[in-house]
């Protein structure tokens, strides 16, 4: 039994030896493979976990060298509405600047080409709290940000603009956009900059000042029929004169209706009414008498009154007349020139000039007869329609006497 055991046992012993060698080689190859994987994959570069590994991480975590500057300082009050807000960047370039009021309305501004500063396009509103958020990057692309809030001044003295035409109106081709300010303006450039006009279709529109309290806007020639005009009055915060600020934000939209231009010939005693370039009616008229002639020039209808009182005392004619019920009156000048119905001199229209400077059309007392020439013209006229007077023995009307800036050349208007 022992021999059998020995004979059988020897091979068993050899087999175990081979198994140990196989395991040893396997461990060796496994170790080599582990070395290769570590070498190719990289693993954790700082193996020890002490945070002293790759240098790139250290560079990425370095603070930005860019410094954002905001003026006025955070929390400032009584800040000027123009010139005080400034955002800049040192050792870097601005990439984002957002300035908003308390309602989330963003202030339009521009970052300079070199990224060194940001400036608002327009003035700020008065009595308003603003929040500033600005971001800058240094030469390595690392960002730095800053925020601040401030409140603008509350003015003691203010002004507004009283304008014509009204919002939503349809007017004639001669209607300018005219603004009369409640206080005299000593910084006209700042005020004019705060009024933005857009038209559809586009047409160049320029403003012209009459004195220091009136600003009119018009194109070079009469508006084209159908033009849509939008005006933004952003006067809130504008310092129109030292210590006097605008307090008005308003958008005014109006539309140009059909084109109607009427030409009064004081010599022939006739008025030709043209609409969209076509003659639609010829009406007999009476103009100013030899001693009280009618102005020549282009005049714009600025007011319509079905019946009104006309008293010579109000326009420098003393007690020469006082007519309490003048029918179908339409104002052509501030000084008192009207085109209106005339019932007290029924034979004058078409034959002679007898008025105190107005243009008269045949009519009846009370303005009740729609068949009368004056009634027809009144019903077919819009505010802003043009009435041109020629061949009168008088001077040309001044551009600021009514809405009559068309009597000034485009070059002078722009100047």
Description:
- The active site is at residues 340, 358.
- Residues 260-390 form the L,D-TPase catalytic domain.
- This is L,D-transpeptidase family protein.
- It is elongated and about 95 Å long.
- It has five helices and 28 strands.
- It folds into three domains: 67-152, Immunoglobulin-like, CATH 2.60.40; 157-256, Immunoglobulin-like, CATH 2.60.40; 260-414, L,D-transpeptidase catalytic domain-like.
- Helix content is 15%, strand content 38%.
- By secondary structure, the protein is an alpha+beta fold.
- It has helices at residues 2-41, 55-60, 188-193, 373-379, 410-414, and strands at 67-71, 76-79, 86-90, 93-101, 109-111, 117-120, 129-137, 143-152, 157-159, 161-164, 170-171, 177-181, 195-200, 206-210, 214-218, 228-234, 239-241, 244-246, 249-256, 260-265, 270-275, 278-284, 297-300, 303-311, 322-331, 338-342, 359-362, 386-390.
- The strands form seven sheets. Strands 22-21-20-28-23 form a five-stranded mixed beta sheet, with no helix packed on it. It has a four-stranded antiparallel beta sheet with strand order 1-3-6-5, with no helix packed on it. A four-stranded mixed beta sheet has the order 2-8-7-4, with no helix packed on it.
Mean pLDDT across the residues is 89
How many domains is the backbone divided into?
Answer: 3
Compute the number of helices: 5
β-strand percent reads: 35-45%
For the record, what CATH class of the largest domain applies? Mainly Beta
Could you describe the largest sheet, including whether it forms a barrel? 5 strands, mixed
- CA-based gyration radius: 42 Å
Low-confidence segments, ≥5 residues, pLDDT <50? 1-56
Record the strand order, biggest sheet. 22-21-20-28-23
Helix fraction by DSSP (H/I, runs of at least 4): 10-25%
General shape: elongated
CATH hierarchy: architecture of the largest domain: Beta Barrel
Distance between the termini: 134 Å
Question: What is the H level of CATH, i.e. the homologous superfamily of the largest domain?
Answer: L,D-transpeptidase catalytic domain-like
Structural class: alpha+beta
Keywords: Acyltransferase, Cell shape, Cell wall biogenesis/degradation, Peptidoglycan synthesis, Transferase
Pathway: Cell wall biogenesis; peptidoglycan biosynthesis
Protein name: L,D-transpeptidase family protein
Pfam families: Big_10, YkuD
């Amino acid at each position: 039994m022992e021999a059998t055991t020995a004979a059988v046992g020897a091979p068993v012993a050899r087999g175990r030896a081979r198994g140990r060698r196989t395991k040893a080689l396997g461990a060796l190859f496994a170790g080599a493979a582990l070395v290769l994987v570590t070498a190719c994959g990289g693993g954790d570069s700082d193996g020890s976990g002490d945070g002293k590994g790759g240098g790139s991480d250290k560079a990425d975590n370095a603070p930005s060298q860019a410094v954002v500057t905001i003026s006025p300082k955070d929390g400032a009050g009584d800040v000027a509405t123009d010139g005080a807000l400034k955002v800049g960047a040192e050792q870097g370039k601005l990439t984002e600047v957002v300035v908003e009021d308390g309602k989330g309305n963003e202030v339009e501004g521009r970052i300079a080409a070199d990224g060194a500063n940001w400036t608002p396009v327009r003035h700020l509103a008065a009595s308003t709290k603003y929040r500033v958020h600005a971001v800058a990057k240094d030469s390595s692309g690392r960002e730095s940000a800053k925020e601040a809030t401030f409140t603008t001044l509350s003015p003691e003295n203010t002004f507004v603009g009283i304008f014509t035409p009204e919002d939503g109106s349809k007017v004639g081709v001669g209607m300018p956009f005219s603004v009369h300010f409640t206080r005299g303006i000593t910084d006209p450039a700042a005020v004019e900059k705060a009024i933005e006009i857009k038209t559809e279709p586009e047409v160049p529109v320029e403003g012209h000042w009459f004195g220091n309290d009136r600003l009119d806007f018009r194109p070079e020639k009469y508006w084209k029929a159908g033009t849509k005009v939008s005006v933004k009055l952003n006067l809130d915060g504008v310092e129109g004169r030292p210590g006097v600020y605008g307090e008005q934000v308003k958008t005014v939209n109006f539309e140009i209706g059909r084109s109607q231009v009427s030409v009064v010939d004081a010599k022939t005693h006739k008025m030709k009414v043209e609409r969209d370039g076509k003659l639609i009616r010829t009406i007999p008229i009476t103009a100013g008498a030899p001693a009280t002639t009618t102005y020549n020039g282009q005049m714009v209808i600025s007011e319509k009154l079905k019946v009104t009182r006309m008293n010579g005392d109000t326009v420098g004619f003393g007690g020469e007349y006082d007519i309490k019920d003048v029918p179908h009156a339409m104002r052509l000048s501030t000084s008192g020139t009207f085109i209106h119905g005339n019932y007290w001199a029924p034979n004058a229209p078409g034959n002679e000039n007898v008025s105190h400077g107005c243009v008269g059309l045949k009519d009846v007392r009370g303005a009740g007869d729609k068949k009368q020439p004056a009634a027809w013209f009144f019903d077919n006229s819009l505010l802003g329609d043009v009435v041109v007077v020629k061949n009168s023995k008088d001077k040309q009307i001044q551009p600021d006497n009514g809405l009559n800036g068309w009597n000034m050349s485009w070059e002078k208007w722009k100047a």
